[in-house]
Amino acid sequence: MNRIHRWLCRSNLWRRELKSNVVPWTLGGTSLGPDVLEIGPGPGLTTDILRSRLPRLTALEIDSALAKSLAARLRGSNVALIQGDATAMPFPCACFSAAVCFTMLHHIPSTALQDLMLREVHRVLKPGGVFVGVDSLISTYMRVLHIFDTLVPVDPTAFEARLRAAGFSQIIIETNPRRFRFQAAKTR
């Protein structure tokens, strides 16, 4: 992420937006179960919100500096921080009751890698597990925020087919003026 993006993702402004709008809208009344995987927590603002609601949370972060910082900050909590790549997850099959991701899909550098991540999420979920997330819709603001940064927007109108191709069913996708949210289940 570029410098401005890193600042924003750590800011109190973004923390308030996550707490009051993004996380509640994304999760709705979804039951995540006892062992949840958070993909791409970045500096951990969403992790802070989630960890107070869950018995156990595993956070997978690709950026080694962010992973190290977050691991140090959350040491002794109910969060296990793993530095690793969501397109090649270091977890066994069928080990999580749910997986979540918040505004990180567009940071995966290609649609092919995004699809690989979707297949990996399906692999690590237990049967009956859910995958819930949110990502930003493309806008001028998003393009400016991502100058010299990775931005591979996800088209919500095509995302259901991509989730189905990864093995998910019971898919729900909804949009608002700034974001789209999704929920999908691993039924087999």
CATH topology: Rossmann fold
Using the CA coordinates, give the radius of gyration: 15 Å
Give a short account of the largest sheet.
7 strands, mixed
Provide the residue-averaged pLDDT: 92
Q: Which superfamily, in CATH terms, is the homologous superfamily?
A: Vaccinia Virus protein VP39
List the SSEs and their pairings:
Layout: H1 3-10, H2 12-27, E1 36-39, H3 45-51, E2 57-61, H4 64-74, E3 79-83, E4 96-102, H5 111-124, E5 125-136, H6 140-145, H7 156-165, E6 169-175, E7 179-185
Parallel strand pairs: 1-2, 1-4, 2-3, 4-5
Antiparallel strand pairs: 5-7, 6-7
List key phrases describing it.
188 residues, alpha/beta, Rossmann fold, 7-stranded mixed β-sheet, 7 helices, 7 strands, globular
Description:
- The structure is a single chain.
- The protein is α/β, with parallel strands linked by helices and 188 residues long.
- The chain has one domain: Rossmann fold (3-Layer(aba) Sandwich).
- The protein is 38% helix and 25% strand.
- The chain contains seven helices and seven strands; from the N terminus they run ααβαβαββαβααββ.
- A seven-stranded mixed β-sheet has the order 3-2-1-4-5-7-6, sandwiched between helices.
- 36% of the residues are buried.
- The mean pLDDT is 92.
Explain briefly what this protein structure is:
With 188 residues, this protein is of the alpha/beta class. Helix content is 38%, strand content 25%.
